[in-house]
UniProtKB/TrEMBL annotation:
<keyword id="KW-0997">Cell inner membrane</keyword>
<keyword id="KW-0472">Membrane</keyword>
<keyword id="KW-0012">Acyltransferase</keyword>
<keyword id="KW-1003">Cell membrane</keyword>
<dbReference type="Pfam" id="PF03279">
    <property type="entry name" value="Lip_A_acyltrans"/>
</dbReference>
<keyword id="KW-0808">Transferase</keyword>
<dbReference type="GO" id="GO:0016746">
    <property type="term" value="F:acyltransferase activity"/>
</dbReference>
<protein>
    <submittedName>
        <fullName>Lipid A biosynthesis acyltransferase</fullName>
    </submittedName>
</protein>
<dbReference type="GO" id="GO:0005886">
    <property type="term" value="C:plasma membrane"/>
</dbReference>
<dbReference type="InterPro" id="IPR004960">
    <property type="entry name" value="LipA_acyltrans"/>
</dbReference>
<dbReference type="GO" id="GO:0009247">
    <property type="term" value="P:glycolipid biosynthetic process"/>
</dbReference>
Length: 287
């Protein structure tokens, strides 16, 4: 389907996404409920109307992100990168790489994260993990779309993790999306004031490698006028040898970024599903 849709301009792809989001709300689909639960959990100081509006906007932005994959994965790479209207603080990438200790990139599920890695992989040797999907055909599609940029993707297995450490040791860049519930080891630390099970892998990589850390996201501009990339050097203690401190620092960095444009975060994900023993799952009624 994405290949067929790739004949469309970005504005039309985003229009289809908006239509699908509208339909999801009208049909009272599960992703609509998840977005509302997350808005209620994370923005307690907002009015009910504001939280409802955020959930609607998030559904629309998430659907735009799904349909724009037709462009990101099938248009020529030069045409895709031509959608980048501006880049905020691009020098932090060059300066960090110049230190010769590799580079760790925090890339949350915010905005057009697939475009972010494409842009970065054109400038530095980039490695990242991915969680293999259940369906081999889908894995082939993901690998084809993502590898066009020149980035190297490793399955989230011990061998893949070793490959990331090797890349850092060689002075290369490693991108991590650390804002999903880890299937294995993790710690409960705050995210928007809520306990969220968070990976400890990022902190371990930062601590062991001593690599500089940056955070970035690709902002989807209004009216499908392209994207603006944002980069920032991270000074928070994400490299602490205390897993709780490091994971909490990562979440704080992501939260600060998301608050700049809340609607473009992936609020349709069950980020708070893993709670402390005895605490109810806030999404339990959606199962």
């Amino acid at each position: 389907m994405l290949r067929a849709l790739s004949i469309l301009p970005l504005r039309a792809l985003h229009g289809l996404g908006s239509a699908v989001a509208w339909l999801s709300i009208k049909l009272d689909r599960k992703d609509w409920h998840i977005a509302r639960v997350n808005a209620d959990l994370c923005f307690t100081d907002w009015s009910a109307a504001q939280r409802h509006a955020l959930a609607r906007a998030a559904l629309r932005e998430n659907a735009k992100g799904l349909f724009e994959l037709a462009a990101l994965w099938y248009w020529p790479v030069d045409r895709v990168l031509g959608l980048v209207e501006s880049v905020e603080n691009p020098e932090v990438i060059h300066d960090a790489m110049a230190e010769g200790r590799g580079l760790l990139v925090i890339a949350p599920h915010h905005g057009a994260w697939e475009l972010l890695q494409m842009w970065l992989a054109q400038r530095v040797p980039l490695h990242a993990l991915y969680r293999p999907p259940r369906w081999p055909d889908l894995e082939a599609l993901l690998n084809r779309g993502r590898s066009r940029s020149g980035a190297t993707f490793w399955p989230a297995r011990p061998s893949g993790i070793r490959a990331l450490f090797k890349a850092l040791k060689a002075g290369e860049a490693v991108g991590v999306l650390p804002d999903q519930v880890p299937p294995g080891e993790g710690v409960l630390v705050p995210f928007f004031g809520q306990p969220a099970k968070t990976m400890t892998l990022f902190g371990k990589m930062a601590h062991r490698s001593g690599a500089p850390v940056v955070i970035g996201w690709a902002e989807r501009l209004p009216d499908s006028k392209g994207f603006r990339l944002h980069w920032q050097r991270v000074t928070a203690p994400v490299d602490s040898d205390d897993p709780q401190v490091a994971a909490a620092a990562v979440n704080q960095e992501i939260e600060a970024l998301v608050r700049r444009c809340p609607a473009q975060y992936q609020w349709t994900y069950q980020r708070f599903s893993r709670r402390a023993t005895g605490e109810p799952n806030p999404y339990r009624e959606l199962a």
